Amino acid sequence: MNPVLAAKISALLAALSAITLEDILAVKQAGVLGPDIPANIETLQKLTASLDDETVALLNQARKDAGLETV
Amino acid sequence: MKLNRNPFLCGVLACIIFLAGCSAHRIQTDPAKPPQAISTQEQLNYNNAQVSIHNRAVAKGIIAAYQSGFMEKEYFDALSREQINITRAHKELTPLLKDLSSAANNAAKIKAITDKIAGSTGVLSAAAGIKNPQAKAAIQAEAQLVSSAAASIITTLQLAGVKGF
Fold it and tell me: Does residue B30 register a pLDDT over 60?
């Protein structure tokens, strides 16, 4: 295999592994709940909304970097 | 697929098995008392948070694949647009799950949104357009987790006996 291509594949797979690890830690962290049920629900609601905002911002920034219109 | 010869795919598979076994748990503050069980509303909102967590991972994976040169621009355009649509639909879902009466009053809307999320992740899984098979498998696995988490929202509501589910 072309060494440049092999290096690019390795870098991509390393990035995907880091994303998977971050995903696991986020799921574990979200599942740790305190004694106050309404506070837990509020925290989970805020976490979910902020993650959705972050996802849209990430995608739109990447679209902008790629010369695509933001959605 | 020869998983035993592919450590990366084995790792992804192990992560999925690990995540499938994840559940919410309460920190015990008083060792004298048994820990309180996780309420339906907490479980519901935990499942909903997992949709966002896995959806963010799918988005990051798609961006990494495109920026590494393993996805054509036209695929990235279509998939990132679809991802944004899923995320915006999910954002409408979250406040409807704040309590069970709100969920019951919005049953049709909740089902429509979760169906949309599950349907869209199916498109993502089928048409990732990623040239590297290992990267494609990793992103498809994450997309499947989004779909499973969305389905678990409906299952939790059904098990709780919430009307309309």
Answer: yes
Residue B13 to residues B8, B19, B28, B141, Cα–Cα distance (Å): 9, 10, 32, 8
User: Partners of B71 in the beta sheet?
Assistant: B130
ipTM: 0.95
Q: Which residue's entry shows tokens 């192990």?
A: B14
- Within 10 angstroms of residue B40's Cβ, the number of other Cβ atoms is 17
Q: Any chain A CB within 8 A of the CB of B10?
A: no
Q: Are B47 and A46 in contact (CB under 8 A)?
A: no
Contacts of B48 in chain A (CB under 8 A): 44, 48
Candidates A59, A31, A46, A22; CA nearest to B42 is A31
Which residues of chain A have a CB within 8 Å of the CB of B69? 8
